[in-house]
Amino acid sequence: VGEPPEDRDDADLLAAHVAGDRDAFGELFRRHRHRLWSVAIRVLGDREEAADAVQDAMVSAYRAAASFRGDAAVSTWLHRVVVNACLDRARKLSARPVVPLTADVAAAADRADRHAADQLAARELRSVLRSALATLQPDQRIALVLVDLEGYPVDEVAQILGIPPGTVKSRCARARARLMPLLADLRPSRASGNLGGSGHVQPLAAEGGGER
Amino acid sequence: VTAPDDPTAPETPEVDPAALAELHALFATLPPESMPDDVTARVTAALADVPPPRDEPRTEPAALGDSIHDSYGGHRRQRRTRQILAIAAALLIGVGGSIGLIKLAGSTSSSGTASSGAAARAGTQPLSATPDSGHAVLVVNFTATNLLAHAETLASSATSGTGYNGTAAAGCAPTGSATGLTLVGAEQGRYENRSVLLLVYQDPQTPHHFEAFLVPLPCAASGGAATLWQESFTR
Question: Are strands B137-142 and B182-191 parallel, antiparallel or unpaired?
């Protein structure tokens, strides 16, 4: 008590929130919002869906904070809540009839390849990757996003998802296998002559959601 | 290639290690994703509108009750004001002036407001006001859907048997309805484009029973304010 929220660790903040400190949860949210958002936007691929998922998740976590038993880190728990919200939405989205994604990915990859001699359009590449991720089953997609894109250790992802580490690994492996043919034309070894001679894909310029 | 060790998982496809490295290189080209300011503001606004957790044991029973004893200058009020200020600041940054500012002269007068889509979606709408002090403060925007939640929050802040001493509530007792009840909390805000005061009373005979009233401001000097909204609830 009396210590500025930003100086307190996550567990203290959550305990303070449960005890009635109205600033505490806000600080927790501010502290982790970028990583939570990154997971949500990459899993869902849609800004509004991601915003809804994060908002729903944070309200749920706010209300259910007293149920947190401390078995995992607070950040892991927050990720779990966000991931569950994303999974719910991803499953609903995947149940809807949408534009055939495989064809969409192939067409986008073809466009990117044709323009690669001049410069690879960063936005298009990002679009291709997002579209490719969208073809994955939600369970595989979220495992791949957490491990390969967000860089979380497999054991932590297992805690977040509530599944064995081996299941995380197998889901990632299946997701990668699924992505390989979709992204084949973008991989350096396949496109080395088309990427400005650099042999690797140029870093993307920050645009859209990239504000960091 | 990651080896599967989940015996229940179906056979995992083999992936060429070189191809896997290339795939990871592709992933590495994705820029970091930061939460946009408007999403931050939207979530913050939603959290500000949620009543605090209820079922947990209170380690400091009076922690939320400060506002009851400190009138509008209480700790909880200050925390809420800081919270709403943060929301408004984020909205100003992210939305770029889409918030309508309302100037108040003391507790009277008002003008229109431009709704932020994000805040409106979250069910709350912070409004800026400039009282006589000249310092900008923010008041809560009550709606039909969040009034009861605000009243419950005030009730949860109540400590048993202690009345509300805020002078701002003087003369604001609703006509006849609150006779025999103890005022345990009050919160000023805006409702349907007018200044209002939310009052929460506790029944001394049945302490778990509360009555909430919304009355317009300024209150009549003679007392007996008209009621804009009323709800009973138990805790």
Answer: parallel
With a CB-CB cutoff of 8 Å, which residues 152-211 of chain A face chain B? 164-167, 169-174, 176-177, 179-180, 183, 186-189, 200-207, 209-211
Mean pLDDT of chain B: 62
Question: Is there a contact between A149 and B13 if contact means CB atoms under 8 Å apart?
Answer: no
With CA atoms as reference, the chain B residue closest to A55 would be B43
Dist. CA B21–CA A55, nearest whole Å: 35
Output the CA torsion sign for B168, B171, B174, B179: positive
Q: Which of A52, A169, A212 to mutate to test binding with chain B, by most B CBs within 10 Å of its CB? A: A169
Kindly determine whether residue A169 and residue B5, on different chains, have CB atoms separated by under 8 Å: yes
Q: Which two tokens stand for residue B17?
A: 């290690």
Give the whole-angstrom CA distance, residue B187 versus residue A2.
25
Q: Do B31 and A206 touch (CB under 8 A)?
A: yes
Q: Tell me what pLDDT residue A155 has.
A: 94
> What own/partner pairs with CB < 8 Å and gap ≥ 24 does A186-191 have?
A186/A109, A186/A112, A186/A113, A186/A125, A186/A128, A186/B26, A187/B19, A187/B22, A187/B23, A187/B25, A187/B26, A188/B22, A188/B25, A189/B18, A189/B19, A189/B22, A191/A113, A191/A116
Residues of A with CB below 8 A from B59's CB?
A: 19
Instruction: Report phi then psi at B140, rounded to 5.
Output: -75, 140
Interfacial A residues in 35-64 facing B (CB < 8 Å):
36-38, 41-42, 47, 50-51, 54-55, 58-59, 62-64
From CA B19, how far away is CA A185, in angstroms rounded?
12
Residues of B in contact with A36 (CB under 8 A): 35
Cβ-based neighbours of A4, under 8 Å, separated by 6 or more: none
Query: pLDDT digits over B49-65, tens only?
Result: 888 765 444 433 322 22
Preferred mutation among B29, B77, B80 to probe A, highest tally of A CBs within 10 A: B29
pLDDT tens string for chain A (212 positions)? 567 777 789 999 999 999 888 889 999 999 999 999 999 999 998 899 999 999 999 999 999 998 888 888 999 999 999 999 999 888 887 665 444 445 556 666 666 555 554 455 567 777 888 888 989 999 999 999 999 999 999 999 999 999 999 999 999 999 999 998 888 777 655 544 333 333 333 332 233 333 33
| Helix intervals (H) in chain A | 10-18, 24-44, 47-63, 74-94, 101-115, 122-134, 138-144, 154-161, 165-183, 188-191
